[in-house]
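Review this chain:
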Amino acid sequence: MLKISSVHNKKILKIRKLYKSRERKAADVFLVEGVKEVSRGITSGFELDSIYFCPDIYDGNIRKLLSNENDDVLIYELDKAVYEKVAYRDNTEGLIALFRKKLFSLDNFSTERNNQLFVVLESVEKPGNLGAVLRTADAVGVTAIILVESKVDQYHPNVIRASIGAVFTIPVIVVSNTEALKWLNNNNIKIYSAVLPAYKSIYDLDLTDNIALVFGTESEGLSDFWLKNSQENYTIPMKGIVDSLNVSVSVAVSVYEAKRQRMISDS
């Protein structure tokens, strides 16, 4: 265990750089903060690079936290002043870790499985929305998230925070619209796009097959690319004065309807 008492230490400067989008995208590691999030990362199969804790804040047992496979991971003890310089969150828990990124591609997924459920997010902008979608996807058992024409980095600290560690359980694939469409069509995965208005309700669709549910942003909605290439365009019925839902809410309503139908089909 090594102790760091200077904010100018190279390890500390490396962590701080990961808060910048360009540096984060270029790095082969990503930053995870919080006891629950780090714990889920350790048990997920992601490779743990290093761990940093502040004994004035974190009252757990670092050695007990680590699994046997992580015996050789470097552990750094930080002075409180140093930790506060690298902590992203206000309600910090005194624990930060660096994990190695995992790169997923569409070719990682077997097309022979039944009842696969993909969520396609076009041009999602807000890290908190992506984090919330990941959290819901984990709860439902979504196969993967496909980010197309993405404007957000899946390793942004706010994605990690909002997902509460679901970033470790749900694969995220970043591709273009055309790449996603080609793969979905080649593998006979039905495409249903959430739009407003649409003739069909989500509740009128058969969601028990291999499907991809496609969502756009609140401000712009989906591009014509997906509207023209979907098997069905559907809407979520709303009776109030608002005409749209937050994208993470739209995803939640849709994937839980898919889960409900599949539970009935399996019973």
